[in-house]
Amino acid sequence: MSNKVVYYTGCWANYYGPEIGQAFVEVMQENGFEVLVPEQKCCGMPMMANANLKGAEKNFQFIMKSLYAAASPGYDVITTCPSCNMMLRKEGRKFFDSEEAKYVSERVFDADEYVLRLHREGRLNTNFGEVPLKVFYHNPCHLKVQGLTKEPLDLLKLIPGVEVVGTNYNCCGLSGSYGMKKQNYKRSVEIAQKVWEEAKKSGAEAVVTECGGCGLRIKEGTGLKIVHPMVLLNQSYKAYKARKAA
Amino acid sequence: MLKTPGIMVIEPSSEQGKRRAAGIFSRKDSYLDAEAIKTSLKDIRGYTKNNCVPLLDQLKRSLEQYSGVKVTFAENAKNAASRIKEIAGPTTLVSMNKSNVVVNELRPELHAMGLNTHLRYFTEFNNFDVETFKKKVEDYWSVPGMHGRGLVESFEVRKQFLRLNPSEVRDYVAILGVNAASAEDGTLYFLQHMSNISKDLEQARKIILVVSVEKVLKDKEAALLHTRSMGIFGLESILLDLNPNPAEAYDFDQLPVLPNIQEREEREVHLIILDNGRTALLNNGYQDLFLCIDCRACARQCPIGKHLMVERGLVYSPKNYILAFLQGKVPPLDECLHCGRCEVECPVGIDVPTLVWKTQIEYAQKHGRSLKKRLLDDPEILAKMGTLTAPLANWAGSLPIVKRIMELTAGIHHQASLPTFHRRTFKDWFKGGARE
């Protein structure tokens, strides 16, 4: 691991959840990393989902060139969006492979996964302050199918005050624009019932999930506040500093 | 009595219970190892995929030694159905098992030819309390995940039909999709959870065994492993299907036993080897579908499975849907969320989500894409427009009239929550931060 990382923001953290991107950058800075954010475009998964092979290829190859150029000294590439992560790591190469894509895909990590890796190696800054919050954790499909089910909970355990009062590993039914489409909406909302009911019953004050889409759908059905693990982690670092300063 | 190949019926075994008990005494983990089974399964399925044509020839030769079974090769479902109609003669009453090849592929053709078909599987649900089995979508997720806990159910040969006994014969036709066939000696394997298959083998005057070409395995050992694996990996999906279906119910047991001994002696056993577009898969990028054992494990976690089974009346699995699409029977699976869960469940590692994308892309290349699809495929264009005009775009997006217009033009449901645009994007902050 080097002291620089490349951050692939994806559309969500750039346009809809800038607080996620900011939190990630600050968390990495707390750990002595410089964060590089090279030129990027949408990962192409929404295009694949709408059968636009050409568009997806154009974006994917642009991203891979750009990320390769930034990561070529041996830096890791981190994402905060599970679907972008799956596209860069696994799905895109099945259709548009290249040397650059191979290099990049082999060093793509999810932010939770990366932070925990630092922790396991004894390199994580553990100056965590109290964040008193009862949370419900929802594991997005695109982390689940990559085997990233335990990492987010291990990460939340690091934050003093955060209490996980419930977890859910089902599909939320949104899947990007899928669940917004007129022909899918009813089905999508039915699929969401399970996570909605469990989150509401749990007594949580907020729902933690990595996926912006899942967050949108869960908020729609529960009215609960949605938080990305990086935001909580960043709050925890800030709480520590605030306490120290006081 | 008819000289037929051996027919083995595999059922849930009590061995599992015995092993568990033994495990408690010996303090050893007594469960079967799912990963070890998967490895062997991939081997034998890979062999079938790579040797399909020679295996078919070998099976045909093996079956020649059994004078009691008449073998036909059918290129497509229509040909198979014509042959079935010919065999059935004046009889229109048909019992069939709940196999993909029979229900999804042959049934519509048989109905068109005036045959009356029933899934006997569901007849055995007569005494079930319907209310208990009323399922909501969320129950789909509530089935215990055996494999996640390292548990494996076991299935063993419980019944063997080496000669068909004529004492119970009734006047109807049974069409049974075979789960595996051994090319080496022609032995046929079925998996049954109820007793519908063994009853049909005992009772039907005419038995038509349907072997789809990918169900031919090297030898008995491979065919047995294939069939047991269907039970092991498909158990949870089977549990999801435990619903009574009154429309299917027909009491074949109540049919009178044929009084004339000669008629009973005239039982017929036919075997149809059906391709129906399968060998073409070997050359068009869908060859991994040949690995499938039809356990339907992929259906277990499919978020849309429950809906599609009800809505389309199929023996549903994402893989079955792809096959039906490739056979030209259904539109591409636009309902797929690309969650990737089916791939994780598949014991032979078929990348079903990628194959679904492939079908959608190929369809679009042939037929073009709808305007709505084109409007929604680049979230970045929408995001850039929204960001430039935020917070106005957020306010406008919340207006009922705008929501209705979006529903009409872009196909976005008026009740769907939309994400909120931010005037200052992450990149603005990041650059600004760098400048400061």
Low-confidence stretches of chain B: 26-30
Whole-number count of domains of chain A: 2
What is the first-to-last residue Cα distance of chain A? 34 Å
User: CATH superfamily assignment of the largest domain in chain B?
Assistant: NagB/RpiA/CoA transferase-like
Q: What is the number of helices of chain B?
A: 19
Helix-strand sequence of chain B: EHHHEHEHEHEEEEHEEHHEHHHHHHHHHH
Mean pLDDT of chain B: 84
Radius of gyration of chain A: 18 Å
Largest sheet descriptor of chain A: 4 strands, parallel
Assembly form of the protein: heterodimer
CATH architecture of the largest domain in chain B: 3-Layer(aba) Sandwich
**Widest β-sheet, arrangement of strands of chain A:** 2-1-3-4
Q: Could you write a compact summary of the structure shown?
A:
The complex is a heterodimer of chains A (246) and B (436). By secondary structure, chain A is α/β, with parallel strands linked by helices. Chain A contains twelve helices and eight strands.
List the helices and strands and how they pair.
The complex is a heterodimer of chains A (246) and B (436).
Chain A lengths: L3 E5 L1 H7 L1 H13 L3 E3 L8 H5 L3 H19 L4 E4 L2 H14 L3 H7 L2 E3 H10 L12 E6 L2 H4 L6 H7 L4 E7 L16 H17 L4 E3 L3 H11 L2 E3 L1 H17 L1
Parallel strand pairs in A: 1-2, 1-3, 3-4, 5-6, 5-7, 7-8
Helix pairs in contact in A: 1-2, 2-12, 4-6, 5-6, 7-9, 10-11
Chain B lengths: L2 E10 L2 H12 L7 H17 L1 H13 L4 E6 L2 H12 L4 E4 L3 H13 L3 E4 H4 L31 E9 L6 E8 L2 E3 L5 E4 L4 H8 E9 L3 E2 L2 H21 L20 H5 L2 E7 L22 H4 L4 H8 L5 H9 L14 H5 L6 H16 L3 H6 L2 H11 L2 H6 L2 H10 L16 H10 L1
Parallel strand pairs in B: 1-8, 2-11, 3-4, 3-6, 6-9, 7-10, 9-11
Antiparallel strand pairs in B: 1-5, 7-8
Helix pairs in contact in B: 2-8, 4-5, 12-14
Can you characterise this structure?
The complex is a heterodimer of chains A (246) and B (436). Chain A is α/β, with parallel strands linked by helices. Chain A has helices at residues 10-16, 18-30, 45-49, 53-71, 82-95, 99-105, 111-120, 141-144, 151-157, 185-201, 212-222, 229-245; strands at residues 4-8, 34-36, 76-79, 108-110, 133-138, 162-168, 206-208, 225-227. A four-stranded parallel beta sheet of chain A has the order 2-1-3-4. A four-stranded parallel beta sheet of chain A has the order 6-5-7-8, with helices on both faces. By secondary structure, chain B is α/β, with parallel strands linked by helices. Chain B folds into three domains: 3-282, NagB/RpiA/CoA transferase-like (Rossmann fold), CATH 3.40.50.10420; 293-369, no CATH class; 372-435, no CATH class. Helix content of chain B is 44%, strand content 15%. In chain B, the strands form two sheets. Chain B has a six-stranded parallel beta sheet with strand order 2-11-9-6-3-4, sandwiched between helices. In chain B, strands 5-1-8-7-10 form a five-stranded mixed beta sheet, sandwiched between helices. In chain B, strand 7 (180-182) and strand 8 (188-191) form a beta hairpin. The longest helix of chain B is centred in the middle third of the chain and has 21 residues, at 220-240. Chain B starts with a strand and ends with a helix. Mean pLDDT of chain B is 84; it is low at 26-30. Classes of the chains: A alpha/beta (246), B alpha/beta (436). Chains A and B meet through helix 1, helix 2, helix 3, helix 5 and helix 8 of A and helix 13, helix 14, helix 15, helix 16 and helix 19 of B.
